[in-house]
Amino acid sequence: MSTKRSENGAGEAAVKRSKVARQEPPRVASRETWLEERKELLMLEKEALRKLDSVAEKLRELPAVLVKKEYTFVNVDSGTTIDLKGLFVDDKKDCLVVQHFMHDPDWDAGCKSCSLMSDSINGVLSHLQQKANFACVSRAPAELAKKFKSKKEWNFPMYSSYDSTFNYDFGVSFTQEEVDNKEKLYNYGNTVFCKEAPGVSVFRKVVSSNGDEHIYHTYSTFARGLERFMSVYPVLDILPRGREENPKATMDWVQHKESY
User: Fold this and answer.
1) How far apart are CA 117 and CA 114, in angstroms?
2) pLDDT means per 10 residues in the chain (260 residues)?
3) Does an H or E element contain 36, and which?
4) What's the pTM?
5) Would you say 145 and 114 are in contact if contact means Cβ atoms under 8 Å apart?
6) d(CA 131, CA 194)
7) First to last CA, the chain
8) 3-state secondary structure of 197
9) Where would I find the H helices in the chain?
10) Which of 84, 103, 217, 227 has its CA 20 to 30 A from that of 73?
């Protein structure tokens, strides 16, 4: 038996070596040539970062929209029902980041790609909470969302918006009729999507001089705008072969972390 296992192991190793051998070799250059080209790339990287800084400044200059509609959410851990103001758990922080998590009420589990983003955010949660509140919101009923969250061991608060139109109003949930009609409603009218879609929205709470609290919607992003919240992508982008994603289904390689 041990001999057979050894032969199988050797065969598998040979297959792996053959696959590596068939890969296209890298472009090879001297250290001097590499350094010259690296410095040219550095200039492009600096230019791109400055452009991103400029875009971020424009983002912060966007006007805010007063949220007039009342929304209710259920904390999946405590079962407590709260309103939008209640998502501002830390009163000392006037900003709130909401991850719109794809978890249809009919799904047993939440979205794998959304989970990748949640894994990333959970890893920096203690740092993020020094600057802002964070909440993860899905349409899954509270008990279903709680069961899913428990598998993930996430530390951030998760809420169900099952009994409100929050997800619909902020462009991440759609009716079956809208989907069937292939209406381009997602990502500011640019994309047809299924009933559930991913996104991130930002809100700010302002207290007036008379003590009244008002919530404003300041920003939302969708689709590829969400890549910045997935910490694995900047690392993949510096690999020699990059992301190696399927262009027709870019995130089909992603699995729930407990499934790898």
Assistant:
1) 5
2) 42 46 81 98 98 97 98 98 97 97 96 98 97 98 97 96 97 94 91 92 94 96 96 96 91 94
3) helix 31-60
4) 0.88
5) no
6) 33
7) 29
8) coil
9) 2-21, 31-60, 112-123, 125-128, 142-152, 166-169, 176-180, 186-189, 232-236
10) 227
